Predict the structure of 5-formyltetrahydrofolate cyclo-ligase.
Amino acid sequence: MDKKEVRKKSKEARKKLSSNDIEEKSLAIANNLLQLNIWDKTYYHLFLPIVEHKEVDTEFILQILAGKDKETVVSKSDFETRRMTHFLLTDATRIKKNEYNIPEPVNGIEVPVSKIDVVFVPLLSFDKQGHRVGYGKGFYDIFLSECKPDVIKIGLSFFEPEEKIKDILETDMKLDFCVTDSKIYSF
């Protein structure tokens, strides 16, 4: 399947998820993350979910990070440049939804991309080779290409992988892991 077909299939599958499904699957994904050998790092980049798109609820991961006393980084998107600015998430950080319903920090302490050790990556789908399909704007591919070479890239998915996504570009950044509610995929 190509990216367009995969996007359509994933969006349709997400529409069928109830809020209870999302909560249960998100909790199982967070629990599976605990099995990964990633918890000795300091800076963890986490996306805040677009509830209207039925994305993985990252609140459970946020609780894990807080419980392990880790630094959580969230981003603000610039739709003109397709770049993201990263901020430390603290009790003082104000979050507001942008025009695309993406929850973003309004203020905060900026964190250079070079500090980030682990990135939890949103996606619509992924394949067995570690390629992901997002919404197609390239924000995460640009961001991940700017990260240090050993940054750990972890996709979070409600669904199992596709066999192969056909139209992968050289600029598409591969995942190191993808975690579903039932399994951890390593690439």
Notes: Residues 3-186 form a domain with the Rossmann fold fold (CATH 3.40.50.10420). The mean pLDDT is 95.
